[in-house]
Amino acid sequence: MAVMTSSATRIDPDALARALEGCARGDHACLREIYDRIAPQMTGVAIRLLRRRDLAEDVVHDTFVRIWEKAATFDPARGSAVTWIFAILRHRALNVLRAEGRTDLTDDFEPLALASDAPDAEAVVCALSEAGALRRCLERLDPPRRVAIVLAYTRGLSHGELAGRMGIPLGTAKSWIRRSLLALRECMA
Amino acid sequence: MSEDLDARAGEYVLGLLDHDEAEACAARLVADPAFARAVEHWRSRLAEFDLSAPAQVPSAAVWARIAAATARPAAAPSPARTTRPASGWRLALAAAWESLPVWRGIGMGAAAAALLLAIGLGFQMRETARAPVLVAVLLSDDNRPAAVVNTFRDGRAELVPLAALRAPEGKALQVWTLWDRARGPVSVGLVNALHSLDLQLKGLPTAVPEQLFEVTLEPAGGSPTGRPTGPILMKGTASRAL
Fold first, then answer.
1. What confidence tens digit (pLDDT) does each residue in B36-55 have?
2. Are the C-beta atoms of B190 and B222 separated by less than 8 Å?
3. Which N-terminal stretch is annotated as signal sequence (chain B) (predicted)?
4. What distance in Å separates residue A24's CA from the closest CA in chain B?
């Protein structure tokens, strides 16, 4: 928990929600406040997904333009400012991943490479708070299923790519993920 | 049934779906409030992955580009946001901002509206005694009208912003004009936030068609070199007003 303190202070959902309201009023300083608070975290997430800083920075740019234009549609009753912002970022980044350029980004993905991904995925799990439900519940999954969930979210892998990397048929991969998701849901309820 | 809905929402939030499947989910967000709630639930369950990613400071150019691209009014605030519950059209809005075609439409609509505003502004001014001789529409780097410069017969010139733009802490917005490449750009205004302002054209030759006006982001107090050093936030050339 201690290592998260500085970013947790900056990524204060209430402060971000107030800044979004400011953006909705056309107060440009509020957009800058959001940028100062959360742009480094957004850039980190985008680089992890896209693995190229230039593409990641383009996605961060596009996300801020949308935040500015769509701030008035943010509704605190439906969810936190943090998930609202990251949903825009992830949607943009996944679009880039799914676009034609994707093959460039995945050239270094070897088939059946899940074993070599496992240390990366376990590092992602270790970065989660020990006290948090996400880590506790991920650790209850079988290791290959845990790795699959983590890679899907943090690298943006599709069903097909996961199946290829796990060396299992697509249908099997889909039912693994589905059961893992339902187990996570039960555990985190 | 609820398992299917929840698993589908989870797959969507994980990012596993191909483009068509993801678009179908975006449409379902509009039509199916239970699905929208399930998606929001997954987003918050998995948010810690994003919050625990190693942070990376973006390069300075990123903010400069954002500042330029957002140099226009944000969407009008929704009129009844404090009282309205999560109604169907709000969900429709939520899905609409995830749809690229809708975005393109909104972007083009906004640009068109701003251009009409610029043209309208030009008409209104022509009807007054202070008809401008030259008008320059300054466009941001994504080609949206961001400000208008009007020059007048008596040598005055004014800049009228079409969008809110404020310089970040420690920075300033500097207005430049260029009519002679040999002389180079000359500073004609320095502000922290864009507002209607008179440009300092005294002592300069009378403005001419094709004369360039631009706004750059500079250190507070203005460019230390007397020439633009920061990113261009908007620019445009003057045309004779009919």
1. 999 999 999 999 999 999 99
2. yes
3. none
4. 5
Instruction: Identify the three-state secondary structure at position B71.
Output: coil
Chain A CB within 8 Å of residue B5 CB: no
The pLDDT of residue A142 is 93
* Domain shared by A95 and A124, yes or no: no
Q: Which residues of B touch A86 (CB under 8 A)?
A: 43, 47, 50
Domain identity same for A91 and A126: no
Domain boundaries, chain B: 1-55, 106-240
Distance from CA of A187 to the nearest CA of B (A): 11
Q: How confident is the model over B92-133, as pLDDT tens digits?
A: 555 555 555 555 555 666 666 666 666 665 555 444 446 788
Q: Do A74 and A10 fall within a single domain?
A: yes
CATH number at residue A123: 1.10.10.10
pTM exceeding 0.80: no
Q: Do A62 and A119 fall within a single domain?
A: no
Is the pLDDT reported for residue A184 higher than 90?
A: yes
> Judged by CB atoms within 8 Å, which residues 30-89 of B form the interface with A?
36, 40, 43-59, 61-63, 65-67, 69-70, 73-78, 81, 85-86
Number of domains in chain A: 2
Return d(Cα B90, Cα B68) in angstroms, integer: 29
B161 DSSP β-pair partners: B147
Q: Which residue of B has its CA nearest to A179?
A: B7
Of the candidates A29, A79, A158, the beta carbon closest to that of B43 is on A79
Contacts 24+ apart (CB under 8 A), B122-127: B122/B148, B122/B241, B125/B150, B126/B241
- pLDDT tens-digit readout, B178-193: 888 778 888 888 888 8
Q: Kindly list the residues from chain B whose CB atom is less than 8 angstroms away from the CB atom of residue A154.
A: 49, 53
